[in-house]
Amino acid sequence: MKHIVVDIETNGSNPYNRSMISLGAVEVADGVITGELFYDEMRPIWSGYEPEAYAVNGFTHEQAMTFEKPSLVMPKFLEWLKQLQTDKRLHFVSDNAGFDWMFVCCYLWHFCG
Q1: What CATH number is given to the structural domain containing 69?
Q2: From CA 107, how far away is CA 25, in angstroms rounded?
Q3: How crowded is residue 71: how many other Cβ atoms within 10 Å of its Cβ?
Q4: Separation CA 50–CA 17 (nearest Å)
């Protein structure tokens, strides 16, 4: 079974009015990393942020404002995912999957349709 292990960093607690600022993922099959790592950083899409979030992720808001546009990052992530697909389903795994997935899902819908 293939898993996509994902980790994100954000500048706040929800994708409704806070932003994902980094996205990392790797394919794992039977406990072994089987593919290339995906990693990119993206600038906030919302003006608001929670200072505590930057304290956790180690970035500053000023740094995040220099990152790539999410409209360029998310299609790259989608293409990376498509390259992994086989006849088996891919399974999303994360530490706090609900939190990470709500941002990833929101961004994929918004930037990739």
Answers
A1: 3.30.420.10
A2: 15
A3: 13
A4: 10
